[in-house]
């Protein structure tokens, strides 16, 4: 029943833009899964509040460039960089995080939003079920690797930095057994059934 109420609430909820007086001048932000959907809208919103530098972390660089062109049109003063990130690859996540440490002088805001929803069961190259890999394990590793650059900036500026992870109410549908003893998806379960587990992050 609560799922039905959640669904109805989603249909009627209207997201509000950030208040006009919020200014992000001088700040640097990363948004993952920024080429479409919630990530794209969040990136566009941040840029429109005077953000100085925005990193669009995307799987496909050409999709990222298209998103960059659209955001730049509305917020030409924001420097926008398109960087490759595939959360189905440990190597890609580590390379991305290293690049953050090496190339960004500061990091103030991180929105970890990249996520997957599929109906069928698929395995990532890491051998984990694809939802569990992308939505949970990949996001968790990236979050740990980005804590230090966020902390460093907070120490330098004396102001708090911020990391937000897009969650899903699908997590409430995960069976308690899977919360207590996660199995990471089984070959017999369709992707739809593993998404709730992957949303527990
Ligand atoms: N929309 C909703 O109603 C809703 C509800 C609850 C939770 N959420 C969560 O909110 C987040 C965004 O949802 P959305 O509706 O905006 O989804 P979306 O439109 O499907 O966008 C998902 C984004 O994640 C990227 N992505 C997928 N797999 C990736 C990977 N392995 N590595 C890096 N990036 C990857 C996609 O890149 P490509 O374009 O290259 O595929 C895309 O940019 C997800 O985490 C989702 O679980 C959404």
UniProtKB/TrEMBL annotation:
- PANTHER family assigned to the protein according to its UniProt record, in alphabetical order: DEHYDROGENASE_REDUCTASE FAMILY PROTEIN, PUTATIVE (AFU_ORTHOLOGUE AFUA_3G08550)-RELATED, RETINOL DEHYDROGENASE
**A Pfam family recorded for this sequence:** adh_short
- Supply the Gene3D superfamilies for this chain: NAD(P)-binding Rossmann-like Domain
What InterPro entries does this protein map onto? NAD(P)-bd_dom_sf, SDR_fam
Region spans: Disordered: 180-201
What is the protein's name according to its record?
Uncharacterized protein
Q: Which family does it belong to?
A: Belongs to the short-chain dehydrogenases/reductases (SDR) family.
Q: Which domain of life is it from?
A: Eukaryota
Q: Which UniProt keywords apply?
A: NADP, Oxidoreductase
User: Where does this protein come from, organism-wise?
Assistant: Daldinia eschscholtzii
Give any GO molecular function from the UniProt entry: oxidoreductase activity
